[in-house]
């Protein structure tokens, strides 16, 4: 600290943060980081330690402030071109920063990054994301380079400097960056593509868990099925709606919706003026819908626990895009079926050129997280079922079964049932049909379901068609969405899936306790 006795007298009555940080940095320069404690700073400033503690709760808090102050002194430079050059720039600046101070590397070893928030730094994350890294992978890459740089600088300050030090740093940093470069195309991007390809099956599992959990939970309130609940909640949120509008909003065909409306009208939950009139909630229906809505909002908010507000906004934005495109695919397939064009491939580029339907305008609302996912899944399944039927003659579930059998054959019966998330009777009927159709062959004792299953040559050909159809549909659904948004969407979806599993386990436990 400069200014001698006059400066010390100035801070004797009330000491501020800047004076404390300056005193701490002076102690670091004189005695090293070990001599920099709250008590030592207070002694240097000739104040009581409580005055220092008012500004810094503990030594770690003080060290962070010191690191920020040091980083603030780094001269800002234009970012280099490309993620690799930017990481080199960041690492080189960080190393010089640490070497400029006694125990500088030890100080930054206490920090999560080389340039703490508030200091001048080199933000390499955008460049990494543009190159194909997910936001999480980009942040991990920066942290890896920072940890390497800190470790190298700690070793430098602990031993006498040598003429080979700078060259060694550059060569070792190059090895680290080469590892990141090799992981990006072969690991990270491929991992994202695999997540997108398996999104539909993951979505089905997520909704299965959420639905089963909801059925148990809502049964304690009222005994009505899931579609009835969805219609009641939809009318509560949107007001009076026509049969066609309810069918479009839920993704359920008109016949099923019509039966549900008739069922609820008979028990006075719904009312309508005529066969073509909008459907509305009755007084008792509105009362029940309000009870269900409060329960649904609580459950939906639980599902989003651990997801940031920023992720929620991205999640609903991507959902809106996916739903619009899923509807477009379904309508295209429906028209092809109506015109009996069984083998004509869907021209995805035409769908884009002709223009997609208007945006759905899904509201960003944690309390209504499930409805758009349910509708999306419905349109994806209905469109996929038409596409698979048109190109292979198989149903949606038959296509799913043969895809699982072809994934890593031969597959055992228990493994197959687990992968399909279906009961053994339904899976057994489908597998038997595929065996009889010459698409699947089985090894094991005759007349028994347990055994191993593998595709025949014709089964592999059909599987290739299914895989190509699914890949092209998935590509259309996700095309043009920036990688950072996709990764944020998938990360949030993973959290939703885990929370749904927890909800289901809890509801089953409560159900068991109620039985006892």
Explain what the structure shows.
With 516 residues, the chain is mostly helical. It has 4 domains: 4-57, Orthogonal Bundle (Arc Repressor Mutant, subunit A); 83-197, Tetracycline Repressor, domain 2; 201-305, Winged helix-like DNA-binding domain superfamily/Winged helix DNA-binding domain (Arc Repressor Mutant, subunit A); 309-498, Arc Repressor Mutant, subunit A, CATH 1.10.10.10. It has helices at 4-10, 17-31, 38-45, 49-53, 59-72, 83-99, 104-109, 125-130, 135-158, 165-197, 199-219, 226-238, 243-250, 254-266, 283-303, 309-338, 348-354, 370-392, 396-407, 413-420, 424-436, 457-478, 483-515; strands spanning 270-271, 280-281, 411-412, 440-443, 452-455. The strands form 2 sheets. Strands 3-5-4 form a 3-stranded antiparallel sheet. The chain has a two-stranded antiparallel sheet with strand order 1-2. A hairpin with an 8-residue loop joins strand 4 (440-443) and strand 5 (452-455). The protein is globular. It starts with a helix and ends with a helix. The model is unreliable at 1-13 and 352-360 (pLDDT under 50). Residues 37-56 bind DNA. This is DNA-binding MarR family transcriptional regulator. Residues 14-74 form the HTH tetR-type domain. Keywords: DNA-binding, Transcription, Transcription regulation.
């Amino acid at each position: 600290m400069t200014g001698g006795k006059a400066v010390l007298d100035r801070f004797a009555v009330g000491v501020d943060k800047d004076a404390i940080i300056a005193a701490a940095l002076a102690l670091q320069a004189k005695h090293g980081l070990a001599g920099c404690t709250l008590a030592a700073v207070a002694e240097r400033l000739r104040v009581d330690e409580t005055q220092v503690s008012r500004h810094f709760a503990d030594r770690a808090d003080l060290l962070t402030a010191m690191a920020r102050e040091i980083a603030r002194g780094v001269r800002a430079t234009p970012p280099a071109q490309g993620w690799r050059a930017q990481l080199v720039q960041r690492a080189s600046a960080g190393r010089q920063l640490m070497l400029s101070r006694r125990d500088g590397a030890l100080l930054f070893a206490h920090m999560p990054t080389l340039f703490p928030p508030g200091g001048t730094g080199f933000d390499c994350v955008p460049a990494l994301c543009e190159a194909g890294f997910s936001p999480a992978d980009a942040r991990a890459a920066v942290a890896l380079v920072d940890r390497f740089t800190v470790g190298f600088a700690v070793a430098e300050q602990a031993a006498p400097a040598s003429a080979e030090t700078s060259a060694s740093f550059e060569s070792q940093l190059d090895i680290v960056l080469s590892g990141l470069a090799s992981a990006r195309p072969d690991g990270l991007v491929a991992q994202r593509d695999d997540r997108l390809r398996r999104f539909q099956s993951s979505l089905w599992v997520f909704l299965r868990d959420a639905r089963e959990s909801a059925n148990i939970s809502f049964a304690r309130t009222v005994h009505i099925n899931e579609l009835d609940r969805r219609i009641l909640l939809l009318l509560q949120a949107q007001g009076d709606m026509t049969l066609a509008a309810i069918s479009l909003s839920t993704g359920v065909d008109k016949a099923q919706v019509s039966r549900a409306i008739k069922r609820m009208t008979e028990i006075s939950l719904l009312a309508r003026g005529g066969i073509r009139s909008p459907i509305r909630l009755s007084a008792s229906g509105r009362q029940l819908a309000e009870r269900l809505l409060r329960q649904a909002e609580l459950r939906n908010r639980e599902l989003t626990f651990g997801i940031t507000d920023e992720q929620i906004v991205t999640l609903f934005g991507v959902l809106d895009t996916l739903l619009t495109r899923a509807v477009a695919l379904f309508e295209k397939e429906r028209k092809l079926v109506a015109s009996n064009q069984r083998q004509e491939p869907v021209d995805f580029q035409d769908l884009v050129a002709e223009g997609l339907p208007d945006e759905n305008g899904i509201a960003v609302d944690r309390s209504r997280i499930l409805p758009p996912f349910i509708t999306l899944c419905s349109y994806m399944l209905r469109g996929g079922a038409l596409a698979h039927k048109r190109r292979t003659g198989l149903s949606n579930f038959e296509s799913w079964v043969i895809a699982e059998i072809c994934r890593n054959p031969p597959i055992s019966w228990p493994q197959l049932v687990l992968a399909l998330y279906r009961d053994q009777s339904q899976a057994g009927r489908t597998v038997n049909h595929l065996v009889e159709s010459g698409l699947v062959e089985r090894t094991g004792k005759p007349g028994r379901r347990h055994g191993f299953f593998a595709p025949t040559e014709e089964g592999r050909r059909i599987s290739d068609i299914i895989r190509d159809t699914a890949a092209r549909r998935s590509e259309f659904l996700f095309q043009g969405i920036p990688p950072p948004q996709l990764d944020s969407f998938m990360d949030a979806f993973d959290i939703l899936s885990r929370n749904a599993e927890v909800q289901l386990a809890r509801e089953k436990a409560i159900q068991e306790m109620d039985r006892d």
